[in-house]
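DM from R.C. (forwarded with permission)

"hey, sorry to bug you on a friday — could you get me a structure for this? deadline for the figure draft is monday and I only need the backbone to look sensible"
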Amino acid sequence: MKDKDSIDIADLSMLDLFRIELENYTKLLEVGLVEVEQNPAPEKIEPLMRAAHSIKGAARIVGLDLVVSLAHAIEDVLSAAQHGKMSLSSDDIDLLLKGNDLFVRLAAVEIRSMPQWLKDEAESIDKISQSIRGILTGKTPDIPNTKNTRPSTIEHEEPPRISQEKIPVPEKREDVLKAKPLEKEEDSFVRVVSESLNRLMGFAGECLVQARSTKPFSVSLLKIKDWHLELGNLLGSIFESAKSTALSKEVRERFSESLKQFDQINDLLVEQIVDFEHFSRNLERLADKLYNEVVEIRMRPFSDGLPGFPRMVRDIAKKMGKRANFEILGETTRIDRDILEKLEAPLTHLIRNAIDHGLETPEERLAANKKAEGTLTLEARHSSGMLYVRVSDDGRGIDIERLRQKVVEKGHTSREIATNLLDGELFDFLFLPGFSTANAVTEVSGRGVGLDVVMSMVQEVGGTVRVDTKPGQGTSFYLQLPLTLSVLRTLIVDIGDEPYAIPLSRIDRIIESSPDRLKILEDKQFYVFENEHIGIVDAHQVLQIPAPDDKTQALFIVVISDRLNRYGLVVDNFIGERELVVIPLDARLGRIPNVSAGAILEDGSPVLILDVDDLVRSIDNLLTHGRLHKVGERNQVSEGKRKRVLVVDDSLTVREVERRLLENSGYDVTVAVDGVDGWNTLQLKTFDLVISDIDMPRMNGIELIKKIKSDPRLRQIPVIIVSYKDREEDRIKGLEAGANYYLTKSSFQDKSLNIAVRDMIGEP
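My reply, with the result:
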């Protein structure tokens, strides 16, 4: 085969099988060689030798002689080390890993291109083979770093990915290559296109939904049975009553026959109901099994995403003159393949940062009474229906004060504010794009792109990330992620008589309360929960859904947040928790605001899954443009529209006093923090009266009044000045600008303000 320019179908099939085997063996070799460097026990070397032997046998069958030669050289060295004839040094491990890198590159080559690729790389493969054989004789020529070797993991480059998914199947497969299998038969693989697997997942979810939708039919059949029984009883009573009257024999016989037929139909109906319920239960059970099996197919062990990490830790630590013991916990934890693929880049950055920023050099560790070798731990586990991933080290920890200084130096906040920031608030800056605590840019760090990648991935899948550090003891990063992206645990809520789903992983808490618990500050509603002020917004306004007219007796609040803001979304009711099969929206619909996907409920009705990050952005937009309505405004009676007053004052205390005085009198009050804010508010809403201070930043009260009186649309609005300035010249200046009333702030102590407002615009 190796000398042919064309390859027939049989050869392609054999090469594809060879590549599958090669991929599995290279993963084992890479992880195993790194372990052997730390613990060269014979039982650790033996499976690696068998892997090299299997690659050699498989390559010989498909006629790849160069691969046979390289695998044979690796096998001889490992065999000698296993039998104690030699010990493997760090440089020896480097050479063996370079040989394995060539296998990795070969496994990534397109099948038809394999023979040609081997011809092009023949010189490099031959040099690597000679160097590995030289380990046995003590003669190992230097191997130049050429494009033929696998890129170093320090540059974090990867071979091309295969666009197909490996799926375990229970069927026993004959080993075409006759190589000694490395895994059990039940771990054999077939190849399935990822898109086909996604469609299968969707069909399985729809089958489950349809199977569960048979329950309403059972209820309907029971109602029909009851109605039929009532009708039969009614006919029976009519027949009994008619016996006293003169009925012909023929009529009596037909009545009697009809009643018998009613009884037969009722018995048959009961039998059919029992059969249907038995059928529906079996159908739902089978659909549930099918669905769970497809979900399980998508799940892969955590270890499948880790083969390159031990090598990466070894290479980076060696390059930086550090010693690291890499521990992996929870290797068998099952994770959705999509989550596992998305985890690779974040975990790579976290591990590289841990080695560079966290672990100290052996000299520094010994001086701090630590072991010379640092420990780096990667753990995955399930808890409460979520996936938890931890990356931790026992290094120096994060220097809080240095981080605080970096935040100020990069202009993210002032020194005064930074001084009062809590540790958790400071850690949030680590995830900002371009933020780095490194003093210089190196191959490993300093560009400020690592933790930003982590946060982007976590937010994309609807998870959270948390940092914990102890000076001198180490740092831990905790990632909380959904177990799968295909199935979502959600809270179903009612908004405008329609169900909507909110991912549970993005809900901080849910609150049921009475409307009188809401408070108002700065003309914005908020709810106090555990000493925290949570801004309240109406879901109907955010989603632009017509609100019901009935007055609610209770408030149902879903607290959501992003990295910077937290809000309470008021919905009409909580329906309950559901696990939903996520159905992507049709691409032809484009991007739908505040919606991420769809799903189907058990009764067959559709439900939209809300995008929490988009919801928060929509709320921010409403706040920025001053269009946020108060919860309950839709329930106000329409007997007469309340008159609206705009209060403009830069003093929080004065604004609140004026607002409460006027709202207690029945007026609808909006507040603004200065003249510019007041002018912008006037452009968005209509008011019956403006109350303004004089001394304010950006635009003072006199300037605001002049702009109002010069605007044809606003000039008819009466203006009252309320100021601390009580000199006559100040009063004259205000009235000359166009004010209709001038009061001093001592008017709060009496009824002067209320009287002036009533004089201007009348009763509320």
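R.C.: lifesaver. Residues 509 and 530 are 12 Å apart (CA to CA).
me: no worries. The first helix runs from residue 9 to 38.
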